[in-house]
Specification:
161 residues; alpha+beta; 5-stranded mixed beta sheet; 5-stranded antiparallel beta sheet; 5 helices; 32% strand
């Protein structure tokens, strides 16, 4: 068998892998919720988030220039999707940064789980794929450092209690 023949025989397998990749990415978990959620653990994929209503926030941050446009889903909608019952969530980032956030933040403010900033998908190299974003410019109280600490980028997990 010639090299060319072997190469051409691999094309159908490579095509199947390439075609399956977007579905695998859409179905792999972006967020894991544990604690007081349905079944004790809920994994949320990109396709789960795509099924929710999306929102946009234009706001300043302490770590970007100007007022970027963030696009994502409301944090409270994620909690509803997971059947969360609790007063506090412990948010954990990819780099193991951990902070407690009152669930009331998500109900009183339109806090989003942003997946895009200025039209570009967030990646782990740039605060993604999920970044908790508060509508900072809409509420003077959100300029307080206590809220700045709750802007968790590279969010991977929420523990509800």
């Amino acid at each position: 068998m010639t090299f060319t023949h072997r190469l051409y025989s691999c094309i159908p397998v490579l095509a199947m892998i390439v075609l399956a990749a977007p579905k695998a990415i859409a179905e792999s978990p972006l967020l894991t919720l544990t604690g007081a959620v349905d079944g004790g653990q809920v994994e949320i994929s990109r396709s789960d988030l795509d099924a929710l209503e999306w929102h946009e926030i234009v706001t300043s941050t302490t770590v970007t220039d100007g007022r970027p446009l963030f696009r994502g889903v409301l944090m409270r909608d994620i909690l509803v999707l997971a059947g969360a019952r609790g007063e506090m969530v412990t948010a954990r980032a990819l780099n193991d940064y951990v902070i407690d956030i009152p669930v009331s933040d998500f109900h009183e403010l339109d806090v989003i789980a942003a997946l895009y900033m200025d039209g570009t998908a967030l990646t782990p190299r740039d605060k993604g794929p999920v970044w908790i974003v508060y509508p900072r410019d809409d509420h003077a109280v959100l300029a307080d450092i206590r809220y700045d600490m709750r802007w968790v980028w590279q969010l991977v997990a929420l523990h509800v209690q």
